[in-house]
Design goal:
Blueprint (H helix, E strand, L loop, with lengths): L4 E10 L3 E4 L2 E2 L4 E3 L3 E10 L1 E8 L5 E8 L3 E4 L7 H23 L13 H12 L3 E18 L3 E17 L2 E20 L2 E8 L9
Parallel strand pairs: 1-8
Antiparallel strand pairs: 1-5, 2-3, 2-6, 4-5, 6-7, 9-10, 10-11, 11-12
């Protein structure tokens, strides 16, 4: 067999997606799994191919993949339009500032106005109670989209900065420290008909440096 032919190629995508390689529909190779569709291709020419994926919810991904033998490919980093990035950034910033503000002020979750973030609220509340300082204020800013992938939801990694204030006790005296920090936060968004809804947040910052 020619060295220019690759064998045993698998392409993994979210269930019920439509996939084309160089504008050729490859549905004849589809093998459905519980949560994904796997396209099993016995052989094809080695090279770079344009892959187009349309997810069941209408979300579209365009990418390039380098076909080699015995490889499994999945959706890589996704480039979002600027208006979509701004939408996601605004949602996360608003939710983070609201989340921390309500935890700091001991507001019951049902009165926070937040949706889908009850687990994050409880996690943050418990984590901040077990510190040798008290977080009294925090605001997030300078947010940027670092990485975007798609599994069952849109998964976005953000980098952002924060300004914070903590009270702590030193030599029986209560002191205040104002600090700055940077962090990386991951968030999941549901996508329906080009509408993006924040569903969960991970890597919430719970430790703040006192210098």
């Amino acid at each position: 067999m020619s060295s220019k032919v690759a064998t045993n190629i698998n392409i993994k995508v979210p269930k019920n997606s439509k996939v084309t390689l160089d504008n050729i529909d490859i549905k004849e190779f589809k093998k459905s799994e519980e949560d994904y569709d796997i396209y099993e291709i016995n052989e094809m020419f080695v090279g770079t191919y344009n892959i187009n994926i349309e997810l069941e919810n209408g979300f579209k991904v365009e990418d390039k993949i380098d076909i080699k033998s015995n490889e499994t490919y999945s959706i890589g980093n996704i480039d979002l339009e600027d208006d979509v990035k701004s939408n996601l950034q605004e949602q996360l910033l608003n939710s983070l500032n609201t989340l921390y503000s309500n935890v700091i002020n001991n507001v019951e979750y049902k009165n926070t106005g937040l949706t889908n973030l009850k687990d994050e609220y409880q996690y943050l509340k418990n984590a901040l109670q077990n510190k040798n300082y008290t977080l009294t204020n925090i605001s997030f800013n300078d947010i940027d989209v670092n990485k975007v992938t798609f599994d069952t939801n849109l998964e976005v990694t953000f980098t952002l900065n924060c300004n914070y204030t903590v009270n702590y006790v030193s030599n029986d005296e209560t002191k205040t420290y104002n600090g700055k920090g940077s962090t990386t936060i991951k968030a999941n968004f549901n996508v329906t008909d080009s509408t993006y809804t924040l569903d969960s947040i991970s890597n919430l910052p719970i430790s703040f440096i006192i210098r």
